Inverse folding.
C-alpha cells in the first residue's frame, strides 16, 4: 500500500532560543515538538489524508466513539541522537507489528507497518532539532482513536492515527535508582481472553487506582498478580519484570495476559547471546519471597522503553517488606541496561539489526 505524506511545515515554529530552554530540562511528557503526523481512516476511503503538519487540537465531536467506549490504542518508542549527529530508531518494525495486533484485538482498522514507520520517520525528520543530545531522547507516541460520531456500541467506522513527539531527558540522572514496588492484592490488571497483551489506554485507566495505592504505601510502582490464582507475578503498571538467579539464569513471566514488551524481548535475546539461560515461566510471589530470603534470587528488575531497566530494590505487601540485592542495583540489570542503551545510541554493534537509521 502506498500513501504519500503531505509535508506541511508549521508557519509558527518554536524559536531556537525557546526550544533550547525547553530541551535543557524536558522532564517526561510535558514538552512537545512543533509537528504531528496524522493519517485518517474511513470505511469507504480506507487510509487517507496522510500528512505531517503543525501540532494542533483535533476537532472531535462529543459523540466520537473513543470518548464513550474507549476504542484507543497506542505505542511508545524513541529516537536517539548518535555521537556522529545521526538519528537512530530502535525496532520501529516491532512497534508497528504490535500496533497492528492491538488494532485487531480492539476491532479497529489495521494500519500497514510501512505507513506506521513512515509516519514516525517523517515526524522525526521534521522535528529532528528537538532530539536532545547526551542521554536524552525523543519519545514518540503513535496512537489511534475511534472517531465515528455514533453512540451505538459497535466497532467504529472511522479512525484517526497520529504520532506526536516529546523530548525527554535521561530517565535517571546518575544511574537508575532502584524502585520499590507494592504487590496489589485488591486489583488485577488482566485476565485470560482480555486485553492484557494489548497496548490500549483502557488498561492504564484500570491500573491507576492500584498505582495510587502503591504510592500511598510509599512505593514507586505497583506489581500485579494473575487474576485467577492471585499468585503469579505478571508485570508492573507499565513495565515487564525479570528475575536474576544465583546460577546466572534469568526468568520472566510468559506472554499471554502481559504486554509483550519490546524491551523484554530484546533483553531475552541479549541475555541468551551472552550464554545465559532465560526461562519464560510463571513465578509466584511466595517463591519470590522465599528465593530472596534464601539467596537463590540475586536481582529483580523492571523494563520498558521509557526507563529501559529499573532495578527493583524492595517489594512491599501486606505481609511485609522484602529487600532485593540489599536494596541496590545489581550487576546483571546494570550490565544489560548498558548493553541495550549502547546499541540504541549506536555506540556498539547491532547484531540483531534492531537499529533503523533515520536519513
Ligand atoms: C508498553 C508497555 C510495556 C513495555 O513495553 P516496551 O515495548 O518494552 O516499551 C510493558 N507493560 C505495559 C503494560 C505496557 O503498556
Amino acid at each position: 500500500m502506498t500513501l504519500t505524506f503531505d509535508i506541511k511545515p508549521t508557519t509558527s515554529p518554536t524559536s531556537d532560543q525557546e526550544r533550547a530552554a525547553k530541551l535543557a530540562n524536558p522532564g517526561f511528557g510535558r514538552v512537545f515538538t512543533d509537528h504531528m503526523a496524522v493519517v485518517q481512516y474511513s470505511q469507504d476511503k480506507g487510509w487517507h489524508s496522510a500528512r505531517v503538519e503543525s501540532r494542533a487540537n483535533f476537532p472531535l465531536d462529543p459523540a466520537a466513539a473513543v470518548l464513550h467506549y474507549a476504542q484507543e490504542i497506542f505505542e511508545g518508542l524513541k529516537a536517539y541522537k548518535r555521537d556522529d549527529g545521526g538519528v537512530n530508531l530502535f525496532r520501529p518494525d516491532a512497534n508497528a507489528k504490535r500496533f497492528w495486533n492491538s488494532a485487531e484485538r480492539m476491532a479497529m482498522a489495521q494500519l500497514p507497518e510501512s505507513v506506521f514507520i513512515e509516519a514516525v520517520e517523517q515526524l522525526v525528520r521534521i522535528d529532528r532539532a528537538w532530539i536532545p543530545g547526551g542521554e536524552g531522547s525523543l519519545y514518540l507516541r503513535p496512537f489511534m482513536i475511534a472517531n465515528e460520531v455514533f453512540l451505538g456500541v459497535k466497532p467504529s467506522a472511522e479512525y484517526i492515527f497520529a504520532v506526536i513527539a516529546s523530548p525527554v531527558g535521561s530517565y535517571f540522572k546518575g544511574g537508575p535508582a532502584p524502585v520499590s514496588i507494592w504487590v496489589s492484592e485488591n486489583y488485577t490488571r488482566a485476565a485470560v481472553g482480555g486485553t492484557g497483551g494489548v497496548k490500549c489506554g483502557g488498561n492504564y485507566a484500570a491500573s491507576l487506582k492500584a498505582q495510587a495505592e502503591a504510592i500511598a504505601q510509599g512505593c514507586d510502582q505497583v506489581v500485579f498478580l494473575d487474576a485467577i490464582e492471585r499468585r503469579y507475578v505478571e508485570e508492573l503498571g507499565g513495565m515487564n519484570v525479570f528475575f536474576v538467579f544465583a546460577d546466572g539464569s534469568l526468568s520472566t513471566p510468559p506472554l499471554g495476559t502481559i504486554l509483550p514488551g519490546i524491551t523484554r524481548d530484546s533483553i531475552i535475546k541479549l541475555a541468551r547471546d551472552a550464554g545465559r539461560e532465560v526461562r519464560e515461566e510463571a513465578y509466584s510471589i511466595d517463591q519470590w519471597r522465599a528465593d530472596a530470603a534464601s539467596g537463590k534470587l540475586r536481582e529483580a528488575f523492571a523494563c520498558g522503553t521509557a526507563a529501559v531497566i529499573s532495578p527493583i530494590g524492595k517489594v512491599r505487601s501486606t505481609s511485609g517488606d522484602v529487600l532485593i540485592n540489599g536494596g541496590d542495583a545489581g550487576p546483571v540489570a546494570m550490565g544489560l541496561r548498558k548493553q541495550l542503551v549502547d546499541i540504541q545510541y549506536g555506540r556498539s554493534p547491532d547484531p540483531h539489526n534492531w537499529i533503523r537509521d533515520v536519513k
User: Anything to note?
Assistant: The pocket of pyridoxal-5'-phosphate is lined by residues 76, 199, 235, 238-240, 259, 261-264, 304-305 (CB under 6 Å). DSSP finds eight helices and 18 strands in the chain.
